[in-house]
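A note from the maintainers: we've had questions about how concatenated examples are separated. There is no special marker in the raw files; a new sequence line simply starts the next protein. For clarity in this README we add a label.
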Amino acid sequence: MQLLLAAVLAASALVTPQLSGPFPVGTFDAHLVDSTRLDPFQPSKNRELMVTISYPAKRTGTRAPWLSPGFAEVIDPIISSPAYLDIPAGTVDWAGTPRQARVDAAAVPGTWPVVLFSPGLQTPREFYAGAADDLASRGYVVVTVSHTHETVAVEFPGNRVERGLMQDGKPETMKKAIDARVADMRFVLTRLPRLHKWADTSRVGIAGHSYGGYTAGETMAHDRRFDAGINIDGAMEHTGEGGTYAPGDVVTKGLDRPFLLFGGDLGERELSHVDTSLTRTWADFWPNQRGWKRDVHLDNGAHLGFSDLQWSVPQIAQISPERRAGLIGTINPEDALKAQHDHVAAFFDLHLKHRNTTLFDRPRHPGIRLVQ
């Protein structure tokens, strides 16, 4: 008890990375209800979502919290547990950590391309705020989505928190999750013009991390409104625990639009289309992809280093070097962030803004390897 009390008293806020684009960023949350669809995890209710919109803005308003106080209270014992950071609860002042984005800041008028982002399995959208804000600072409307009842928790207006309801990783559960995610992303895009008047929905990208990377590809396979996509370190299958190999349509059919694979390491193994030790799906997807394609690898970068843990973990002194390496890898954190932000932005600049880049022709960042 004394240890926990001391940790709470010493709880410190973290410093979020500076934006790399020319624009300040505004942000707001939106509560959406799909009146045409029942929630697959709670069939007695319509599907409802929380999304965060980040956009080019004027430098007005106060900085947004990385995590709201209510959500921070729920997530702290989970993210601090031995399964993740393995630190005493209360070590980090999550709600006292401000984003670079500002709440409800006045938007810069323009026709900004749109990028929708889907988090990892059971992971809240809040843990990708850094990447979303950085891309928005480069001239995009970025929408991050929490997939209700799959993600560990979602906070709705009125301090209502809906917790995750996934009880297992069986094939049928994983299939339900990917189908819900694809429907979520399509619905959010349909609703977006009502949320942000400067969002140009004639130029739409989609990206995601882990199961969100699968979501990005599978959504493109089912909806031609999405022009280009990125899979960040995610197997594109819903095989589940003990199931037979079940790749998505994006794998078996490929796409006729641009798609980037951006992989990391798991110990001595890597996620790429030339290494099938983690998943066959990237290798199976590669010959079926008819549009522009590249396979970019972040050497010595671990799976969760593609989330906000990449910048937050190095600031938490209580995390052991071994735990840190397992979470975010051994690559220099600043190098990893710059490589991720630059490659994501360059991909969407190329395919949504039609700006040429040489970033995918030869590596220009420490740790980046062009697999093909």
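[label: protein 2]
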Amino acid sequence: MPSGKSLLLGALVGGVVSASVSLLTTPSSGAELRTKVKDQSERLRDIMQELQENGLDLKNQLTQTSKEGAALLKDLSQDIKTSIESWKETIEPHQENLQEHLRQIEESLKDLEDKMKEKNEQQEV
């Protein structure tokens, strides 16, 4: 935030300097000069008030946006978690079926190996 303060200070100093230079370089009477100085100071005060209000509005918008973003991220993470759990529940029965089929294939292969051994032993005798 220091850069925002220095920008604001620079704008303020620049405005004062430019107003002073323009007032001092124009030919006018003392009454006119005082009126111009008064008008410039009021205008500068209005600008400063507007900058302050805009800064507060921006701060409030940023705060609201960050709160909404945090809420959206929380909802999104909950949705993702729910989706993953649902996917796991959907896949689990199929996984068990696949494991059962693999066990059956292993048993069939073992039976086939045993039969091949027996056949080889019978041929050797």
